[in-house]
Amino acid sequence: MTALPLVFDAPRRGKPPRHLADLTREEARAAVTELGQPAFRADQLARHFYRGVTDPAQMTDLPAAVREELTGALLPGLLTPVRTSSADGGRTRKTLWRLHDGALVESVLMRYPDRATVCISSQAGCGMACPFCATGQNGLTRNLSAAEIIGQAVAAAAAMANGEVPGGPGRLSNVVFMGMGEPLANYARVRKTLDALVTPAPHGLGLSQRSVTVSTVGVVPAVRRLTEEGLHVTLAVSLHAPDDELRDTLVPINTRWKVDEVVAAADAYAERTGRRYSVEYALIRDVNDQPERADLLGRLLTDRRAHVNLIPLNPTPGSKWDASPLPAQREFVARLRAHGVPTTVRDTRGQDIDGACGQLAAADRVDGVPAVALPQPSLEPPVEMGAEADQ
Ligand code: SAH
């Protein structure tokens, strides 16, 4: 397998149109005032946005004459659903979104008996080049704007609230940054997104901080920066190997920041927030699943505020690697637990729709395998909004 370069700086592309979710509350109020409307209309628009209302006709608290101007100026449709695929009887739904410039990203909504989690993308593609990850193999297209990231969570919250997922109307409870991209390589936009996720309505989705998880390959300076923010969101570190020699090959950023530095940065985050971090470890047959590595990982994490989340490798196209067989998984878990390290094995929801960890690779497949076409939820205003208005 040829090694890809690490890419931190996203290519510059045309900016998405201005959107309320990219603005601070003051900026949004100023923007509305510039349009000749009272500032409180910004709050009304925010309420509609976070509830997933995109059709101006439904915004009955706004004067009919200005609905379209205001939505056009501040709530442009940034995410156009191209395709929805579902699995688990509809309780796992993957959506492929097209962005204003044609870039594609995916998000996955998973409903469980006790919670509903959306896995969102922070970049179109990814520059981190992990060889076992489909997204990483396609390289980085660009950073997403805050509104583009937030919009994925808003769409999921609306799908739950509107009863589009089997099980009746419900609430989106969790957001994980485990879709496409490296969230900490798009720091400022992800930081804004975190605010929007945890700010109470009408200016946010009102999720609890602990139910939001930022997953990173270990961009150490950015983990430190996040620590300084004083947030209490959950941190997940994609370790995948306890030793530098192997991790250099599985998670190429390890050539910059080593295992010890990554773990130390996560410890500092845990210290500051009082919250345990999760260590993600994809179990790859005969690559990182040996009993000795389990012991090495166990020794590394003993007496740390870490919880290990093992993910049997999800197959990606063209990869020679495979998931560890069950007996190897069980042995790995037993050894970690023997070291006193809390350990769970993650389910592989959505694997059959390429919606599981590391399988999101929209760019590669837009014209490829047709997914199950479901009726599209009306997440976007019609393109020709109000075209008949003066007929
Ligand atoms: N860039 C971030 C978030 C995206 S991936 C990160 O790396 O943490 C979310 C998780 O899925 C990461 O732990 C990632 O390493 C893991 N992953 C990637 N490809 C995978 C695969 N093929 N099978 C199982 N897990 C995978």
UniProtKB/TrEMBL annotation:
The keyword Kinase does not apply. Its EC number is 2.1.1.192. Keywords: 4Fe-4S, Cytoplasm, Disulfide bond, Iron, Iron-sulfur, Metal-binding, Methyltransferase, rRNA processing, S-adenosyl-L-methionine, Transferase, tRNA processing. It is found in: Cytoplasm. It holds the Pfam family Radical_SAM. It catalyses: adenosine(37) in tRNA + 2 reduced [2Fe-2S]-[ferredoxin] + 2 S-adenosyl-L-methionine = 2-methyladenosine(37) in tRNA + 5'-deoxyadenosine + L-methionine + 2 oxidized [2Fe-2S]-[ferredoxin] + S-adenosyl-L-homocysteine; adenosine(2503) in 23S rRNA + 2 reduced [2Fe-2S]-[ferredoxin] + 2 S-adenosyl-L-methionine = 2-methyladenosine(2503) in 23S rRNA + 5'-deoxyadenosine + L-methionine + 2 oxidized [2Fe-2S]-[ferredoxin] + S-adenosyl-L-homocysteine. The active site is at 106 (proton acceptor), 357 (s-methylcysteine intermediate). S-adenosyl-L-methionine binds at residues 181-182, 215, 238-240, 314. The keyword Mitochondrion does not apply. Binds 1 [4Fe-4S] cluster. The cluster is coordinated with 3 cysteines and an exchangeable S-adenosyl-L-methionine. Its main location: cytoplasm. It is an enzyme of class 2 (transferase). Its cofactor is [4Fe-4S] cluster. CDD domains: Radical_SAM (cd01335). [4Fe-4S] cluster binds at residues 126, 130, 133. Specifically methylates position 2 of adenine 2503 in 23S rRNA and position 2 of adenine 37 in tRNAs. NCBIfam families: rRNA_mod_RlmN. Belongs to the radical SAM superfamily. RlmN family. Reaction proceeds by a ping-pong mechanism involving intermediate methylation of a conserved cysteine residue. This is Probable dual-specificity RNA methyltransferase RlmN. It comes from Geodermatophilus obscurus. The gene is rlmN.
